[in-house]
From TrEMBL:
Chain sites annotated for binding ATP: D6, C7, G8, N9, T10, N11, T12, V13, T132
Pathway(s): Cofactor biosynthesis; coenzyme A biosynthesis; CoA from (R)-pantothenate: step 1/5
Keyword ATP-binding (UniProt): yes
Classification via CDD domains: ASKHA_NBD_PanK-III (cd24015)
Transmembrane intervals: none
Record: active site: D109 (proton acceptor)
Name of the featured protein: Type III pantothenate kinase
Length: 257
């Protein structure tokens, strides 16, 4: 069975797949120091707890944190007796090309999102991923990744305010009652929430104008629904888009092997 690992700068998601069916998904915080043995203790105890008695013999990894990859390779080798497919590394082919400046290393999560979204929706897409950073990935009509936008993530923006200003507290994002805040927390939430609505709308509008074709906007990441409930920003929200992309890339590599 396949273990798919999506490592972001904040969280790492592990998912076990039987063909196209996800059997279980677990999330842990991303820490580059974590060893293969630590991953295995965590993973095997969750599998035992949920009575998932399967043999993992294939692994695919996407990691925005390069230092984590070494330990995930050791995990695959030592405990699952296989060499992992690592997106963006030699030995892992991608179903679509990436048309960016020579020498640019695109974040593997963005290539994976592109593959997942193109598989489900076809071309001419904007994929918005609300992760540590908020990324906009532009997918051409033929499925190629043709560039995008990187903006500071929602929580990163709130943390930056807290870290830089002595009197600003730590605040969780939520939709404020009104735009004009009457206390510090409400003012901060308003700035980030409504600022973000504007950011997403403006960037998508400008991408569409620049490309000159109708485009669908697909959103992923835990915070996307918060913004969608307020304004119709996206054509679709798909929580599992990155995982789906990993499955698509894994399937493609098996087909061409
Ligand atoms: N459902 C959710 N509700 C609120 N915050 C969330 C949710 N999912 C993720 N987050 C927060 O959003 C930020 C990005 O998380 P995540 O999408 O896991 O990032 P990455 O993929 O970059 O590791 C983190 O600060 C995380 O705590
Ligand atoms: C932009 C990112 C930091 C987003 O990572 P994430 O928020 O998913 O942790 C990541 O895709 C990355 O490190 N990209 C490299 C540069 C690029 O994609 O052009
Ligand atoms: K991500």
């Amino acid at each position: 069975m396949l273990l798919a690992i999506d490592c972001g700068n904040t969280n790492t998601v592990f998912s076990i797949w039987n063909g196209t069916q996800a059997i279980a998904t677990w999330r842990t915080s991303t820490e580059w120091q974590r060893t293969a043995d630590q991953y295995y203790v965590w993973l095997s105890s969750l599998m035992a707890f949920q009575k998932i008695d399967v043999v993992i013999d294939e692994v695919i990894v996407s990691s925005t944190v390069p230092r984590v990859v070494f330990n995930l390779r050791v995990l695959s080798d030592r405990y699952f007796n296989c060499r992992p497919l690592v997106v963006g590394k030699a030995g892992c082919a991608l179903p679509q090309e990436s048309r960016v400046d020579i020498g640019t290393t695109v974040g593997p999560d963005r290539l994976v999102n592109t593959a997942g979204a193109y598989d489900r929706h076809g071309g001419d897409l904007i994929v918005v991923d609300f992760g540590t950073a908020t990324t906009f990935d532009v997918v051409a009509s033929d499925g190629a990744y043709v560039g995008g936008v990187i903006a500071p993530g929602v929580n990163l923006s709130l943390e930056a305010l807290h870290n830089a200003a002595a009197a600003l507290p730590h605040v969780d994002i939520s939709k404020p009652q009104s735009v004009v805040g009457t206390n510090t927390v409400a003012c901060m939430q308003s700035g980030v929430f409504w600022g973000y609505i504007g950011l997403v709308r403006e960037i998508c509008a400008r991408i569409k104008a620049e490309r000159g074709v109708p485009m669908k906007v697909i959103a992923t990441g835990g915070l996307a629904p918060l913004f969608q409930q307020s304004e119709a920003l996206f054509d679709a929200f798909e929580e599992d888009l990155t995982m789906h992309g990993l499955i698509v890339i894994h399937r493609y590599n098996k087909e061409i092997a």
